Amino acid sequence: MMQAMITTAYGSPEVFKLNQVAEPTVKPNEIRVRIKAAAVTKACTMMRTGKPYIGRLFTGLPKPKHRISGTGFAGVVDAVGAEVTRFKVGDSVFGENIASFGTYAQFVRVPEDGVVAHMPDALNYDAAAGMCDGGVTSLNFLKNLGEIKAGQKVLINGASGSLGSAAVQIAKHYGAEVVGVCGPSNVDFVKSLGADSVIDYTKVNFAETGNKYDLIYDTVGVRSFGDCKVALTDSGRYVSPVLGGAILGAMVYTSIFGKKKAMFSATGALPQKEIKRLLEELVDIIEAGHLQGYVDRSYPLQQLADAHKYVDMGHKRGNVVVVPSL
Question: Helix 304-312 and helix 42-49: axis angle, to 10°?
Answer without folding.
Answer: 100
